[in-house]
Amino acid sequence: MNAAAPVEVSVFETWATIVTVAATAVAGDVLTAGAMRRIGDLDVIRAQSGLGGAIRAVVSSPMFLLGVLSMAISFFSLLFTLSNVAVSLAAPASASLTFLGNAFAAKLFLKENVDRRRWLAALFVCAGVFLLSK
Amino acid sequence: MKHTLSPQRYLILLAVMLSASVGDTLLSHGMKQVGPVSVTHLGMLLSAMANPWVIVGILCLLGFFASYLTALSWADLTFVLPATAFGYVVVAFLSKFWLHEAVSPYRWAGIVLIVCGVGFVANGPSLTQHPPVDEPAGAVAGGSK
């Protein structure tokens, strides 16, 4: 397979694909985290029902499957984005947006106690990931 | 309330930190070999699955997913996520001291910010405790307890 020259993409298209990657990643993270919270501690389940029981408990959760679907969409969006946008922009930008989006979504949907410490962590990590691309 | 993690759980978090960044790096290398994918040729994404770098990258990300789900079953999403970012720091240190690549001052600043961010969260509780809510009659528990 020969590597062709990169396709020119507009600023709008660049950020639309990056935001799509981040939004679907946030949806996937929140859905899987919500599913894992409902299922319970996997270490306990594995101790009681073995690895098979733990896997069954996870894959039989509709919320988990929906989360995986969102993550799959995010994964293919990332592959698509990486093929058109420079990895030095696409990877940190989508990761930074995902960190911030997850903090908002975790507070809103999972009712997590996102205190000042966790907000600071989300902001620091978001800025840090972006600086790593410089 | 403070939730102390056992050494085994710290190992799970370590796996979360390392496997994601290594997997992403392998995927990026593989997709550079595959070349650009346009909207009109989305089938090329499937052919990318034949690339060995993409395959190993996906295996790493599967390992990440298993450890990530395990961590999410006993810790908050906003506790586990900064751990995933710590993988970037590991990659930066590997590239500096193993591959002898130049790490710019911006990158060192980014590393300091991520380490601070992870430190903030690691210092706090790992799980939000909600008051118990009565399950509606007939509700089926998701996990076999």
Descriptive account of the structure:
- The complex is a heterodimer of chains A (134) and B (145).
- Chain A has helices at residues 11-39, 42-59, 62-84, 87-109, 116-132.
- Chain A has one domain (11-102, 111-132).
- Helices cover 82% and strands 0% of the residues of chain A.
- Chain A has five helices and no strands.
- Chain B contains five helices and no strands.
- Chain B has helices at 7-34, 44-47, 52-74, 77-97, 105-122.
- In chain B, helix 1 (7-34) packs across helix 4 (77-97).
- The longest helix of chain B has 28 residues, at 7-34.
- Mean pLDDT of chain B is 77; it is low at 137-145.
- Classes of the chains: A mainly alpha (134), B mainly alpha (145).
- At the A-B interface, helix 1, helix 2, helix 3, helix 4 and helix 5 of A face helix 1, helix 3, helix 4 and helix 5 of B.
Rg of chain B from C-alpha positions?
19 Å
Shape of chain B: globular
- Indicate how many domains the architecture of chain B comprises: 1
Ranges of chain B where pLDDT stays below 50 over 5 or more residues in a row are 137-145
Structural class of chain A: mainly alpha
| Radius of gyration of chain A, in angstroms, nearest whole number | 18 Å
**SSE order of chain B, one letter for each helix or strand:** HHHHH
What level of helicity do the residues of chain B show? 55-70%
- Portion of residues in helices of chain A? over 70%
Number of helices of chain A: 5
User: Largest chain interface and its two residue counts?
Assistant: A-B, 65 and 54 residues
Rounded mean pLDDT score of chain A: 86
Distance between the ends of chain B: 25 Å
Largest sheet of chain B: none
